[in-house]
Design brief:
This protein has about 120 residues and is mostly beta strands. The chain has no helices and eleven strands. A hairpin with a 6-residue loop joins strand 4 and strand 5 (about 45-50). The strands form two sheets. Strands 2, 4, 5, 6, 9, 10 and 11 form a seven-stranded mixed β-sheet that branches. It is about 0% helix and about 50% strand.
Length: about 120
């Protein structure tokens, strides 16, 4: 299984980025997908998640109204649209695949990809 995240970069506060995660080696439509982030010195946190069908989503409170998770099962890809970025959004963002039968907010995942760095500056 491979999960390849891309789309990170440097942006000023208030700016936007769109992360993508391309999955291979698994039946993508059978998996719940999530985006995690880890900032220096901080624990990894689940930022957003989406059910296998796309019908249910989860967001951590700090990103609600700013981030949007979506997926394209035909292209085996999950996205994270990040708007109104803040300094505290600076982190390495990784995507993960989890069992679809678990609740969308569950932090339990089976497969992890390499991260992509998002740096927000003033």
């Amino acid at each position: 299984v491979q999960l390849q995240a891309s789309g990170g970069g440097s942006v000023q506060t208030g700016g936007s980025l769109r992360l993508s995660c391309a999955a291979s080696g698994l039946t993508f439509s059978l998996f719940r997908m999530g985006w995690f982030r880890q900032a220096p010195g901080m624990e990894r946190e689940l930022v957003a998640a989406i059910s296998w069908s796309g019908g249910s989503t989860y967001y951590v409170d700090s990103v609600k109204g700013r981030f949007t998770i979506s997926r394209d099962n035909a292209k085996n890809t999950v996205f994270l649209q990040m708007n109104s970025l803040k300094l505290e959004d600076t982190a390495i963002y990784s995507c993960a695949a989890g069992i679809r039968t678990m609740h969308v907010s569950s932090p339990a995942y089976l497969y992890w990809g390499q991260g992509t760095l998002v740096t927000v500056s003033s």
